[in-house]
Amino acid sequence: QVQLVESGGDSVQAGGSLTLSCAVSGNTYNRYSLGWFRQAPGKGREAVAAIDYRGNTNHAEAVKDRFTISQDNAKNTVNLQMNSLKLEDSAMYYCAAAFRGYPSLTAGHYNDWGQGTQVTVSS
Predict the structure, then answer these.
(1) Structure letter (DSSP) for residue 123
(2) Angle at the Cα of 44 from the Cα atoms of 115 and 91, rounded to 5 degrees
(3) Residue 57 Cα distances to 21, 27, 43, 109, 122, angstroms
(4) Cα-flanking dihedrals φ and ψ of residue 122, to 5°?
(5) CA–CA gap between residue 54 and residue 39 (Å, rounded)
(6) Residue 80 near residue 89 (C-beta atoms within 8 A)
(7) From its phi and psi, is residue 63 left (phi > 0), alpha (psi between -120 and 50) or beta?
(8) Are the beta carbons of 107 and 49 closer than 8 angstroms?
(9) Using alpha carbons only, what angle is made at residue 17 by residues 11 and 19, rounded to the nearest 5 degrees?
(10) Most CB atoms within 10 A, among 46, 58, 87, 119?
């Protein structure tokens, strides 16, 4: 019952920064969590970061020192700030929503998914 639309994907040089946004609409509940996942060609879906309704976050080890997930004050947008981008960060990035209030990095935790936004990092 949740709609998610990602935006902000672009081409960027290695070492640069980029911020992705996900607009959330539809039914809202007191307890929820939102996550970012990514998938590169020929690779499986990989967790990036997650946040719950209380503001608790989890970040995957591969991005922990470089990426930051956050939510705006109205709680209708979730962002992913990406710094020090590497070639291996190139992927389609998806946001996802769950009705459980825990910031899981497991894809099966999430109920609804956006269509994705492309990030391409070049040298």
Answers:
(1) -
(2) 55
(3) 16, 22, 25, 15, 29
(4) -120, 160
(5) 27
(6) no
(7) alpha
(8) no
(9) 85
(10) 119
pLDDT, residue 55, reads 94
Evaluated on CA atoms 83, 21, 48, 75, the torsion sign reads positive
Looking at residue 61, what is its pLDDT? 97
Q: How many CA atoms lie within 13 A of 83 on its CB side?
A: 6
Structure tokens at 3: 């709609």
Could you tell me which of 93, 113, 117, 109 has the C-alpha nearest to residue 24? 113
- Residue 81 β-bridge partners: 19, 68
Task: Give the residue from 114, 74, 84 showing the smallest Cα distance to 18.
Answer: 84
Identity of the amino acid at 56: N
Chain segment 54-82, per-residue pLDDT in tens: 999 999 999 999 999 999 978 789 999 99
